[in-house]
Amino acid sequence: MRGVLALTWFEHRRTKELCAGLGVELVVLGTRFRGPLRYLVLGMRTVALLARRRPEVLVAQNPSLILAALAVAARGMLGYRLIVDAHNEAVVPFINRQPWVARLSRWVIRRADLTIVTNRQLAERVLGQGGRTFTLPDRVPQAPPVSVRTLDGAFNVVLIATFAPDEPVAEVLEAVRGAQVELYVTGNHCKLERAVAARVPPNVHFTGFLAELDYWSLLRSADAIVDLTLMDDCLVCGSYEALALGKPMLLSNNSASVELFGDSAVFTNNSAGDIRQALERLRLERVRLQVAAEHKRSELADLWTGSARSLQDIIAGSRRRTRTGSRLVN
């Protein structure tokens, strides 16, 4: 889409798939610096990029909240319409719960011309904070052609993890203790709490950070995929990756996930005992769940295509309104 530019300070599958599906150019800005210097360097590069490119519509990924706030602040000077691709943390801060983060998040929501969220529940929160919103679940990715690995057990499960504060990793590790399952855990397990790391069951395998194709190969080789979160109304990326491969999946029992995925997934309340029972359901019902995943993948693909067309119309309309000073409409 001419005149439209998407910008992020870190790569994320949701935004990548969103831009690919809409035909929007995505620019990922990164730096080796950390802390305040990171924000200073990326902020300067962002302003320079926007001043040079002069987009009519800017799509900014949030997080980063600092990027989204900068995009709001620079809008008046550079004259673009601002659409924020808001992940859960951008609407209901969970990991960063400082009062100033919540205030700045609400300010960005009110000031953006449009906030894209993944589900009805988050949309209601955006509207309640004075924002304008559009609901668009993640696009189911196209899984690359990769080889299938031979894993160790009769029932092999992958836990998609980054060891973030919203992930009940310790509960999953306890759930598989003594169970007839081999658990493969992605991500940097050095972040695991020392007390938990000291009691890891022998049927748990930490893979470390995997390259993209190795990651997809592991997922394709597994019998089932687990991706859990303590966040309310959070649709995790791993659920779409599981659908892409037609894999049975275990998700957290939040209203957004249950509403979207229905009988194509098994759900848990995130306690160790309930996760253990849910894993047994995955094992017993995996044939049914594979069929359900195939149907859900087709259904969500159609849903995404229709919603994306509506969003493209809104973006096209916003380009026409750029010079008039009028706002985007839902």
Q: Flag low-confidence runs.
A: none
Mean pLDDT: 94
Coarse shape: globular
Q: Could you give the distance between the termini?
A: 19 Å
CATH architecture of the largest domain: 3-Layer(aba) Sandwich
Question: Can you offer a commentary on this structure?
Answer:
The protein has 330 residues and is α/β, with parallel strands linked by helices. It has two domains: 4-136 and 303-321, Rossmann fold (3-Layer(aba) Sandwich), CATH 3.40.50.2000; 156-284, Rossmann fold. The chain is 47% helix and 16% strand. The protein contains 13 helices and twelve strands. It has helices at 13-22, 36-53, 65-78, 88-91, 99-111, 120-128, 169-175, 194-197, 212-221, 237-245, 255-261, 272-284, 286-321, and strands spanning 4-8, 25-28, 57-62, 81-86, 114-117, 133-135, 156-159, 182-186, 204-208, 224-227, 249-252, 266-268. A six-stranded parallel beta sheet has the order 2-1-3-4-5-6, with helices on both faces. The chain has a six-stranded parallel beta sheet with strand order 9-8-7-10-11-12, with helices on both faces. α11 (255-261) links the parallel β11 (249-252) and β12. The longest helix has 36 residues, at 286-321. The mean pLDDT is 94.
SSE map:
Layout lengths: L3 E5 L4 H10 L2 E4 L7 H18 L3 E6 L2 H14 L2 E6 L1 H4 L7 H13 L2 E4 L2 H9 L4 E3 L20 E4 L9 H7 L6 E5 L7 H4 L6 E5 L3 H10 L2 E4 L9 H9 L3 E4 L2 H7 L4 E3 L3 H13 L1 H36 L9
Parallel strand pairs: 1-2, 1-3, 3-4, 4-5, 5-6, 7-8, 7-10, 8-9, 10-11, 11-12
Helix pairs in contact: 2-3, 3-5, 7-12, 10-13
